[in-house]
Amino acid sequence: MAADDEAALPPGAPTTDLLSLHESIAGVLATQGDWRRAYHHLKSAFDLARAGSLRDTLTSSYNRRYLDQWLHGPAVDHRGPPGVAIALVDLDLFKDVNDTFGHLVGDRVLREVADLLQQGLPPEAFCARYGGEEFALVIPDVDAARAVRIADTARIRVARHPWRRIRPGLSVTISVGLAHESRMEPDLAAEPERQLRSADTLLYMAKRAGRNKVAYQDRESSRTIPHPMNTAESAGA
């Protein structure tokens, strides 16, 4: 077997194939007494396995485990002064999609929504599958106004996506609950669980307001309001 490190790895190979190849090469090198290179391949296999454990297998977005690690890790304590936004995103009436078009179409919808949510995110932000048809967007170092713009742009992008290309009659929208916390408030410590609960409450308010909306906290009036839908955008849904 070839053992010229990365030269033995086929470009574009799936992660599972790369993992197996690293392990196989490490075994060959170990039997030859080349412990340094065997260790290199075992470490590569470990890194691939760890990276894979943080990804959702269906959508390839990050998973709940990665989200939890980030929210409870040092990144939260070192966020920039503008603060961090957490948005919980839920596909509207997704059960109807599965019931009407089947679970294979439902799976494709989930994959495409994940791709659409990740488009246009700032480099430091990420999308994670929170569970079922629910996703989370984490946007660090952002003020509240920009966070609302990012979330609403994602909502419009999903509504305007040409879903009928998948199946005639298919349309998909999302509802979003957006919670923002600013580090500019000295008495406000990073409490990710509280912020998630707030985003979840706002998500349900967006649902009750008619779906296909972003709900967020209006700081000036201390009211929770739905971000209004642009009536022209539904033409592409």
From TrEMBL:
One of its GO terms (biological process) is cell adhesion involved in single-species biofilm formation. GO terms for cellular component: plasma membrane. It holds the Pfam family GGDEF. CDD domains: GGDEF. Residues 213-237 are annotated as: Disordered. Residues 82-219 form the GGDEF domain. SUPFAM superfamilies: Nucleotide cyclase (SSF55073). It comes from the Bacteria. GO terms for molecular function: diguanylate cyclase activity. PROSITE patterns: GGDEF. This is GGDEF domain-containing protein.
